[in-house]
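2024-03-11 09:14:02 DEBUG pipeline.ingest accepted 1 chain
2024-03-11 09:14:02 DEBUG pipeline.ingest length=355
2024-03-11 09:14:03 DEBUG pipeline.predict start
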Amino acid sequence: MMKTVPREYWPTQEWRTAEPAAVGIDPDRLSELEQLINSRYKKINGIVVVRKGYIAFERYYNGYSLVDAHHVASVTKSLISALIGIALDTGHLQSVDQQVLSFFPEYSAGAADIRKRSITIKHLLTMTAPFALTKGKSEPLDRLRRQRDWVHYILKLMGGKGQTGSFQYSTAGAHLLSAIITRATGCCARELANQHLFRPVGMREIPDHEMKSFSIDDVFGKNVTGWIKDPSGNTAGGWGLTITPRDMARFGFLYLNNGKWAKQQIISKGWVEESTTPHSETVIDNSLLKYGYLWWLKEENDTSIYLAMGSGGNIICCIPDKDLVVAIASKIVRKPLDRWPLFEKYILPAVSRDQ
């Protein structure tokens, strides 16, 4: 966890920029990074690198500019995690150990379904809630979008034959967290975010957009706008948020500063610490990855890194030890080129050790 750093300013109204060398970044490495993006990472639409609170590198591609919002897919989950923390801070939620079904009394789990009744908010946050999914198969999200009641459908899937406490990535589970926010606070996640998160830190507020349909394009594709919602009005919890790379960086910067923004504690320091502490783990491509509360956690050369990651290579990367935030917005494609080499070979080596 990063120590408290005195800031010259806060980018509530506008980000300030700085030459890379002025904030301890090697400009030659950034030039190499840009060349690589232009040659191999052509699905990247925007990248913002913030060091010591200043934008040191910012580029846009494929006709996009700094004012354009992008669908950031599962990056949305990390914002839902922040909103659960805010709901706890404000007393609308009592504990991460509250049972999920306690928020949906109209749903009957059945007396024999002990597993389902034991699942808690924490299980959803750490991806350790079991769901009835066929091994090796992806979640039935296309089927989900066609349901009249998404929450009821997900609750039927929850439990399954899996082991509670074992890692099982679930986008649907994150949507239950959004529904819990609605039940606990009386407003949807989008409204809560506008009031308690976006507005205070200068992120764009998101108006309520009518869902014209629940087609693939409207739910997952080219028509996604604002922050989509289910037929019952619950903000999508696992995906569906559109924001600008600069606002992605603002969110990362808030976490980099332990939830504090200017003189206001937006999210409690304790929640930021708990969210970026390992609670579960999984193996992906033969690599062991750890997981916090809807944040991915990584160690690189004794440096702790936490990331909000979404399909297509959408990323908010926070590196407290280097006072560094990197936001990348990308076109969502099935098999994007791995983004980590950009950090490993160019961004991290560009940051001087003594600053």
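2024-03-11 09:14:41 DEBUG pipeline.report Residues 20-72+243-350 form a domain with the Beta-lactamase fold (CATH 3.40.710.10).
2024-03-11 09:14:41 DEBUG pipeline.predict end
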